[in-house]
Amino acid sequence: MLFRVDERLIHGQVTVGWGGPLHADRIVVVDDDLAASPWEQELYCLGVPPEIEARFLAVAEARRDYAGWRDDVRRTIVLVRDVATARRMAEGRLLQGEEVNLGGIHHAAGRTSILPYLHLRPDEQRDLAAIAAEGAKVSARDLPASRRVPLEELTGG
């Protein structure tokens, strides 16, 4: 299972770059707004190959189903749009032992450039530390063949 934070959610880097090497069977997008918007879900599904199932769930539903995905033989990519949602997923040690992959988080007001594809605000850095404190391994890697950059290196701590 791949748990990834990526603002763009479903896009080529996820479906081809990660989905191909992982032989993904399913992509689950965890986003409260998208879970309530069928027309936006249809737009995102345009980028999903037909052999991959796509689901859109609110955080509460995803937290309920997460252990089942982990135990399922189907290879799953879980996508969240932002660090705050990842933190909500990690609460209660739900992601303990899992790797939280940071993908594209782009420049915006208040964010500092950490890597070419990763920009973080101070509150996002605190959220990442909280995710790690919940037992998840946090790192950044834009593609599977790229170097894994651990949280300590990202935040200088």
Please explain how this structure is put together:
This protein is α/β, with parallel strands linked by helices. Helix content is 39%, strand content 23%. It has a seven-stranded mixed beta sheet. Helix 5 packs parallel to helix 6. The chain is globular.
List the keywords.
single chain; 157 residues; alpha/beta; 7-stranded mixed beta sheet; two-stranded antiparallel ribbon; 39% helix
Give the SSE string: EHEHHEHEHEEEHEEH
Which secondary-structure class do the elements indicate? alpha/beta
Report the major sheet. Answer: 7 strands, mixed
Q: Helical proportion? A: 25-40%
How many strand segments? 9
Global morphology = globular
Beta-strand content estimate = 15-25%
Quick summary:
With 157 residues, this protein is α/β, with parallel strands linked by helices. Helices cover 39% and strands 23% of the residues. The longest helix is centred in the middle third of the chain and has 13 residues, at 59-71.
Could you give the topology of this structure?
Elements: E1 2-5, H1 12-22, E2 26-30, H2 32-35, H3 38-45, E3 53-57, H4 59-71, E4 76-80, H5 83-90, E5 99-102, E6 112-115, E7 118-120, H6 122-133, E8 137-140, E9 149-150, H7 151-155
Parallel strand pairs: 1-4, 1-5, 2-3, 2-4, 5-8
Antiparallel strand pairs: 6-7, 8-9
Helix pairs in contact: 5-6
